[in-house]
Amino acid sequence: MKKKKKRNSRKSLKRVTSKGIASRVGVSVMTVSRALNNRPYVGERTRRRILKVAKEFGYSPNHIARSLVMQRTETLGVVVPEISHSFFPEVIKGIEQAAYSAGYHLILTHSAEDEAREKDVISTLESKRVDGLLISTAQTVTSHKTYLDAIRMGTPIVFYDRVVTDIGASCVGINDEECCYMVTDHLAEHGYKAIAHLCGPASVSIGRDRLKGYRKSLSRRGLKLRPDLVIRSGFSEEGGYAATQTLLRLPQISRPDAIVAVNDLAAFGAMRAIAEHKLRIPEDIAIVGMGDVAMAAVVSTPLTTIQQPAFEIGKTAAETLISEVEGRTKPGKRIIIGARLAIRKSCGCS
Amino acid sequence: MKKKKKRNSRKSLKRVTSKGIASRVGVSVMTVSRALNNRPYVGERTRRRILKVAKEFGYSPNHIARSLVMQRTETLGVVVPEISHSFFPEVIKGIEQAAYSAGYHLILTHSAEDEAREKDVISTLESKRVDGLLISTAQTVTSHKTYLDAIRMGTPIVFYDRVVTDIGASCVGINDEECCYMVTDHLAEHGYKAIAHLCGPASVSIGRDRLKGYRKSLSRRGLKLRPDLVIRSGFSEEGGYAATQTLLRLPQISRPDAIVAVNDLAAFGAMRAIAEHKLRIPEDIAIVGMGDVAMAAVVSTPLTTIQQPAFEIGKTAAETLISEVEGRTKPGKRIIIGARLAIRKSCGCS
DNA sequence: TTGTACGCGTTATCAA
DNA sequence: TTGATAACGCGTACAA
Fold first, then answer.
1. Per residue in A238-280, pLDDT tens?
2. Strand C proximal to B30 Cβ, under 7 A
3. Which of A180, B35, B121, B224 would be A213's cystine partner, CB 3.0–4.6 Å?
4. B295 vs A300: CB contact, 8 Å cut-off?
């Protein structure tokens, strides 16, 4: 047993490897491997001795080496468009729970709503050989090539919330069209006539589908769709604020009497703009959002919105992905998570 | 060149390796490695051909293999006690930004405020051979052994927000004692006499230090410290609610006229309890928090609190860790991020 | 400028 | 029940 203490590049103790344990116990690495992984074909006495030495030396199995030979990392890559949107932390929590119980880890990345950056993080995620990808698309995406490439190279994707339905990947989210129809119709039902919509980009599923739902309600209610009342706000507070400014600059006569915001954040921005114009909610303008982030219920005029079960979306998405990674199910599912209307003050319908 | 197409365990295309590219281009793997990493000693023509083939085959460098030989993963492990606390997503965003610009990735884990789970995630993080650890301790931790072991095995730790100062690791956070002194003193200065404190566990730095700050203010103001007014709430809304219930069950005469909550979440819980008792804030009971989460400013009675720059804490913590990982600085720093008092309605001092 | 041999820490395979 | 050997995909050291 020649034990040369060669490289000492790191200042600290070199970590024990299975080989190190093997030589200390006087067995081969394979026996150590078997003992450490609770595999059969190891004598009970040998196993105990190995476990003892392993603990004694603070052995930590090297997942990197394991991943290399196993061709699996037991790691999921998560792409979040904007960590600050309080919807997403809740989704992440759901993802984390599902991953943790299944023994998977999470590499978290942030696209910052930027297509180029999204592409970049996906590519590094592939380099890290994650077993699968959980993606909510950035606001500025136009091409799906990055996704397609990843899938083609064997990294399954499950989209959550902002989904891409036409490339064979599974998708988990609410029924955006139906939900936006619900909120819009709630307003229409209560007599609002000039209902505006702060919409998201058409390239993003929830932007597109929610707009559809808005339109459907107007058309069913026999209300005319006024293009000047459909303004692109995007998903941010600032976007909602700016879009609403535009609406409020319309001549008094053609101003909306209600606003359907694509999400709660945009609704908050709208509320801020409305407040600055010294208008009252809902008396002068009613407003509804979608998402039901925690703040929606506690702002000065509580926001009527769609309760979107973020945790469940994350959990379901992760479970779906893991199941596909392990070959138990096939990709291409479209999973709809139930959502419901939360009626509060901002719509003035109570 | 014998090319046996052996294993095809995964259904999809086998990913190209540097060897694959090498044989296609007709050079050795080393030349490929050099070309792909922009290293010298590669003919310009050869380099271009290699790059072309690499792109053509969608080559993705295998970080796993790279990490194994380099003994570095360029990955940081992040432990978050509770993802839902809106303070933490903001911290994560800061961490992510610093990590991304330095070329590091993040493995995100969740201790769920539980010591055993924290130990578990740290151990798997070590197995994944992260280059360093960013930790905010769970509420229930009592022992620091796990941290010490990690450090001893060569994985540096930087604590953020909830720190551990006595084990040689760097810490990044606000000056908790000073800040809690500030809020408490703000109340005392305005004539409140029976100031209660909803405190965190003494085993967690911010619980301990904030209690100290509270005490300091009382003692300097000549107010008696009443043990019945110091109640353990922990860091959650529910905890704040329960603790406040206890306070409100005190005989009228000994009830507090103000409450210093260990954080905003506990303060929200307190507000809920107070509202249920049909008491007014701040007329009947004033309340202040710490943290300044987004909701603090928008709840019906806006909360006076300490503005804690979460993003900056995360960014600084990550930068500090990366710098230590790369051997540019030594561990053991105590970095204080500035915070200031945000006076709003809940303290009744305006 | 390019290539060869070896090692990183682990698991699978097959022989002992 | 155990062990020797060959992968896994890449980088380092040194030879050509």
1. 999 999 999 999 999 999 999 999 999 999 999 999 999 999 9
2. yes
3. A180
4. no
Cα(A347)–Cα(A249) distance, integer angstroms: 21
A123: chain B residues, CB-CB within 8 Å: 60
Cβ contacts (< 8 Å) between A88 and chain B: which residues?
89
Q: Which domains does chain A have, with CATH numbers?
A: 9-69 (1.10.260.40), 74-174+310-338 (3.40.50.2300), 176-307 (3.40.50.2300)
Tokens 């000047």 belong to A228
- Pick the closest to residue A266 from A87, A103, A126, A132 (CA basis): A87
Supply the pTM of this predicted model. Answer: 0.93
What are residue A80's phi and psi, to 5 degrees? -115, 130
Those nucleotides of strand C lying less than 7 Å from any protein Cβ are: 1-5, 7-13
Minimal CA separation from B109 to chain A, in Å: 7
Q: Phi/psi at B288 (nearest 5 deg)?
A: -135, 155
Rg of chain B over Cα atoms, rounded to whole angstroms, equals: 26
Q: Provide the total of helices (H) and of strands (E) in chain B, helices listed first.
A: 12, 12
Which residues of B fall within a CB distance of 8 Å from A154? 10-13, 15
Residue A44, both tokens: 């009970």
Specify the residue for token string 């500025």: A140
Q: Does the bond joining B309 to the residue before it have cis omega, within 30 degrees of 0?
A: no
Q: For residue A166, give the amino acid letter.
A: D
CA–CA separation, B24 vs B31, rounded Å? 12
Q: Is the dihedral of CA B308, B314, B319, B324 positive or negative?
A: positive
